[in-house]
Design brief:
Helix 10 (220-225) links the parallel strand 9 and strand 10 (231-234). The protein has helices at residues 13-22, 35-42, 58-61, 82-87, 100-115, 118-126, 155-168, 181-186, 194-200, 220-225, 243-251, 290-308, and strands at 4-7, 24-27, 48-51, 69-72, 91-93, 147-151, 171-175, 190-191, 203-206, 231-234, 257-260, 279-281. It is of the alpha/beta class. The strands form 2 sheets. A 7-stranded parallel β-sheet has the order 8-7-6-9-10-11-12, sandwiched between helices. Helix 5 (100-115) crosses helix 7. Bound molecules: NADP nicotinamide-adenine-dinucleotide phosphate. NADP nicotinamide-adenine-dinucleotide phosphate is lined by residues 75-76, 96, 99-100, 103, 151-157, 175-178, 207-211, 213-214, 217, 235-237, 261-262, 284, 286-287.
Length: 321
């Protein structure tokens, strides 16, 4: 009997076709009713699951009897209850590295767009409001040579630092829970406490993974430390930031602007952010290029096949048991 694979979100069509040739594949679809109910139903006799963007924990995985692996098409794995998976002897594998550069590109896109008011001036031009030269209210913030503070100098954080250092001659500051001396040397990056990084940076970019210590890391008190001309960018996870505090800070023009790819609730709907022209809101597209999404799908496929063929997947998140 063929092994059963549950596809729990839309995945690359070629990868899905390959899976369908090898395994019995069930594709879940929110159009067919409550997704968690579908998961509980299909997971009972599933050997593997692949996808992204769904909360998977005891509440929907408990009926599983022989699930060996969940292969997430993402580097972030905060949607999964890792300790439950450990206890249940279910592997969780992710897709690091292949999305680092493209996500760093997106961080810089947000930084530049927010600094130079790209979306609002684009709209202004298209609205036919360009009747004379731009006024001072439409001027942006200079990026070249400024101070870039990176919270979370990991893979993506380092790729952002590289862009800032080599491309824009920026002075790099960073904050992690532990200093990253070797990586930091490459960009002459200086370690700062969170407080000092926020006080001293012209641009603050959040690139941490979401964990118990990074949850709500940036709130009212942290925004209060930032400079009035500063630009804040979050490409990490929405829950790292107190979104209501950020909205207030932007409404009061306490900082210059923000660029966001991630939110506390996604997809973002009816948010007060939509009323603000000093924030750039993107729909969680950090890794969403044709090339990178292909590479991520390929890696997730390899992780899944390895597990089903009794090899240890290359990128295991949890323990190797
Ligand atoms: P990574 O290499 O693990 O880097 C994360 C960094 O955050 C680590 O260096 C970690 O260092 C630091 N960190 C964790 N908690 C911290 C805290 N409380 N304070 C300060 N630093 C902290 O991961 P990555 O590949 O760069 O990815 C980072 C995250 O970006 C992912 O987990 C994912 O959530 C997000 N992401 C988003 C998109 C998107 O589409 N927007 C795309 C890809 C990834 P220490 O442990 O030393 O503190």
């Amino acid at each position: 009997m063929n092994k059963k694979v549950v596809v729990f979100s839309q995945i690359d069509s070629e990868i899905q076709a390959r899976l369908e040739k090898q395994y019995q594949v069930v594709v879940l679809n929110p159009k067919n009713g409550d997704i968690n109910q579908q998961i509980r139903h299909e997971v009972v006799d599933a050997d593997a699951m692949i996808g992204a963007g769904r909360l998977l924990n005891e509440s929907n995985l408990a009926p599983a009897t022989k699930l060996k692996i969940i292969s997430t098409v993402s580097v972030g794995y905060d949607n999964y209850d890792v300790s439950y998976l450990n206890n249940s002897k279910i592997w969780l594998a992710n897709t690091p590295h292949v999305l680092t550069e493209t996500t760093a590109d997106l961080a810089f896109t947000l930084l530049m767009s927010a600094a130079r008011k790209v979306p609002s001036l684009d709209q202004w031009t298209k609205n036919g409001e360009w009747k004379r030269t731009v006024a001072v209210e439409q001027f942006g913030q200079e990026v070249f040579g400024k101070t870039l503070g990176i919270i979370g100098l990991g893979h993506i954080g380092a790729a952002i630092a590289r862009r800032g250092f080599h491309g824009f001659n920026m002075n790099i500051l960073y904050h992690n829970r532990r200093e990253k001396i070797e990586v930091a040397q490459q960009f002459n990056a200086q370690y700062r406490s969170l407080e000092n990084l926020l006080k001293q940076s012209d641009f603050v970019v959040v690139a941490v993974d979401l964990n118990s210590e990074s949850k709500a890391l940036i709130g009212v008190n942290e925004f209060a430390l930032m400079q009035k001309h500063a630009v804040f960018v979050n490409i990490a996870r929405g829950s790292v930031v107190d979104e209501n505090a950020l909205i207030e800070v932007l409404q009061n023009k306490q900082i210059f602007a923000a660029g966001l790819d991630v939110y506390q609730g996604e997809p973002l709907q009816d948010s007060p952010l939509f009323q603000l022209n000093n924030v750039v809101t993107l729909p969680h597209i950090g890794s969403a290029t044709i090339e990178t999404r292909k590479k991520m799908a390929e890696l997730a496929y390899q992780n899944l096949v390895d597990a089903l063929e009794d090899r240890t997947p290359r990128y295991l998140v949890n323990e190797n048991f």
